[in-house]
Write a structure and sequence with these properties.
six-stranded mixed beta sheet, single chain, alpha+beta, 29% helix, 13 helices
Length: 419
């Protein structure tokens, strides 16, 4: 079975534990439309040809400027789905389960099914992505799930009993990744002007360089410090700034989200929301308890309920799934600290290598994040990290006794059994 997670922020296709496609839901309209990462790489070079709202709109509104095969938003959604189908090698008869954002309307879902039929995609069920993610995590009876898409954020009220059920959804249209990115790029550009007297926003090529690096370091890697380089006329200029500067720039947009969330409660944050600079800290400071969801939470929830979803011949929009309260077996003794040179430091919700007093020089070589299903180790951008003497390439779950080595420093994951 195939699982398609369909949103403007991320289109992901998985099968049998492997991810076959994961790129943003954006397009560049030239002679032939270009999709995903390739389109994002030209977003600032060709802004008039760049399109990023066709999945969030999913309607017959015109695309301006269009091209012969694209006249409206639905045309673009259709062509992108064909691109995904080809890239992932999905067969016409392969069963496909689709997770969509909680704010999707019945009209959009109806159009999606029509587009899928045209593209010969065999959709068996359409599932609310927040419900799918919640069903695979251990959550309290009442909580809210926060997700951030390209053009808005969502606050989903959930009830968890035998089923994970969506009670309601609120949209925050001015707190999307695109709006946040605009502010972050401006912040980096201001630093360039102040330190190098070069304004990268005056030249499309240098603006694209800043945009690419901010996307990679903030949205993909969650770096605590940004190092952004711009090449212009044969010379390179570089600035460094803490991610806290981006958090400060985003304060007003975060406030919009905070007001929709309301009183202190338990919040489940998707991987997109948890990577936003300063958002988790702001929510904790307001008294919220945070549960950080794995990037594959929605996919896992759908897989665990596959037999139930197959049981109905009619394709429906699923807003309730069995809650897997023991989706991940609880650890008998969970990790609590990281040990280096006889000094143990608490892992907390997020630990960076530089947090350890014996490893300040490592900077952002690696980080450890606590999610609903356990602790995960992720490498930084440049320094090699070994987990149990094997090179670490991607985010990996860790357990007690695991060894982490970076440069000359060695760490051990331990449990502190104090009061």
């Amino acid at each position: 079975m195939w699982v398609l997670e369909l949103s403007d922020a991320e289109v992901a296709v998985s099968r049998d534990g492997g991810v076959h496609y994961r790129e943003p839901g954006v397009a560049l309209l030239e002679r032939e439309p270009v999709f995903g990462d390739a389109a994002l790489a030209s977003a600032r070079l060709r802004p008039r040809q760049f399109q990023s709202q066709y999945f969030s709109r999913m309607n017959a509104e015109p695309v301006v400027p269009g091209i012969p095969e694209v006249s409206n938003q639905a045309d673009l959604a259709y062509l992108h789905l064909l691109h995904v189908k080809s890239s992932a090698s999905i067969g016409d008869d392969d069963e496909l389960f689709v997770a969509v954002p909680s704010g999707s309307t019945q009209e959009q879902l109806g159009l999606l099914l029509g587009i899928a039929r045209e593209a010969k995609l065999n959709i068996r069920a359409v599932i609310d992505s927040a419900v799918a993610a919640a069903s695979s995590a251990r959550l309290p009876e009442r909580c809210k799930l926060i997700d951030v898409l390209l053009h808005g954020a969502t606050v989903v009220n959930l009830s968890i009993a035998e089923n994970a059920r969506r009670e309601s959804v609120q949209e925050v249209p001015d707190a999307g990744l695109m709006q946040l990115l605009e502010g972050w790029v401006d912040t980096v550009a201001d630093r360039f002007v102040g330190e190098t007297r070069l304004d990268p926003l005056r030249i499309a090529e240098t603006e694209q360089q800043v945009f690419d690096q901010v996307c990679a370091q903030v949205l993909n890697n969650g770096e605590l410090e940004l190092s952004v380089a711009v090449e212009h006329r044969g010379s390179e200029r570089r600035v460094r700034l803490p991610a806290s500067a981006l958090a400060e720039k985003s304060g007003q947009r975060y406030d919009l989200l905070v007001r929709r969330i309301g009183a202190a409660t338990t919040l489940a944050l998707t991987h997109r929301a948890s990577r936003l600079p300063g958002l988790a800290q702001r929510l904790r400071a307001l008294g919220h308890r945070l549960i950080l969801l794995d990037a594959n939470a929605a996919r896992d929830g759908i897989w665990e309920s596959a037999d139930i979803l197959r049981g109905d011949d009619e394709v429906a929009f699923i807003t309730s799934l069995p809650a897997a309260s023991e989706a991940v077996a609880p650890e008998e003794i969970p990790p609590t600290h990281i040990l280096c040179d006889a000094v143990a430091v608490p892992l907390g919700d997020e630990f960076h290598a530089s947090h350890h007093p014996r490893a300040a020089a490592l900077g952002n070589a690696f980080r450890i994040v606590r999610r609903a299903s356990g602790h995960y180790l992720a490498p930084g951008a440049e320094t090699e990290v070994l987990l149990n003497e094997h090179a670490l390439a991607d985010e990996t779950r860790i357990a007690l006794g695991d060894s982490i080595r970076c440069r000359q420093q060695e760490f051990t994951i331990v449990h502190f059994a104090g009061d």
